Amino acid sequence: MVELWDNRFATKGAYSFGDKGNKAVNFYTLIEFYTFYQLRVKGVSAQKIQTAHKTISRELNTPYPFATNIRTDGKEIWYDYLDELVNANGKQQLDIKAVLEPFLHKIDFGKNNLAELYFPLEKSRNVVVDPKRQFGQPIISGRNLRVETIRKLYEGGETRKNICQLYDLKISEVDDALKYYKRAS
Fold first, then answer.
1. Residue 36 host element (H or E)
2. pLDDT 10s digits, 31-49
3. CA distances (Å), 65 to each of 12, 32, 162, in order?
4. Looking at the structure, do residues 82 and 112 belong to the same domain, yes or no?
5. DSSP secondary structure letter of residue 160
6. Do 52 and 73 lie in a common domain?
7. Closest by alpha carbon to 145, among 161, 163, 160?
8. Which residue, 59, 105, 149, 160, has fewest beta-carbon neighbours within 10 Å?
């Protein structure tokens, strides 16, 4: 993290903070990590990612360019600028807006196209990371209930049905909370 994010990607200061052995990051940096990972999964080279990061940071004047609304086809990276799609290869090329958005379905963007919410499960929006609630801990969407609470109740012997009744939840919300922790372990 220090080598890649603090030394190569950071444009204003460092991404991480804290002691040498106890580093932490903010919500936007978490989104940047996720986006970097997804770009690599899609096959984008590390060199193109680094170029795109610098280009978008400069053009949008943000230290968190990967927390903005970007897209990829696995080869190129694009970003939104003035309602146009611009290739982030440093040449400021405009492209047709019909480019795919496969990994962005997990991130909701708000003002200035900055990431606001992150939905970590593939096909569900029941579990959300919202930096404005529960200090960014995963919660049930639309509620202030941490998914960890559901997991602890379930592991303590409560049935899914009882948990639903205790918190007025749908079974799918309980299942997704348990699925989130199963995937994390």
1. helix 27-41
2. 888 888 888 888 888 888 8
3. 12, 8, 43
4. yes
5. H
6. yes
7. 163
8. 105
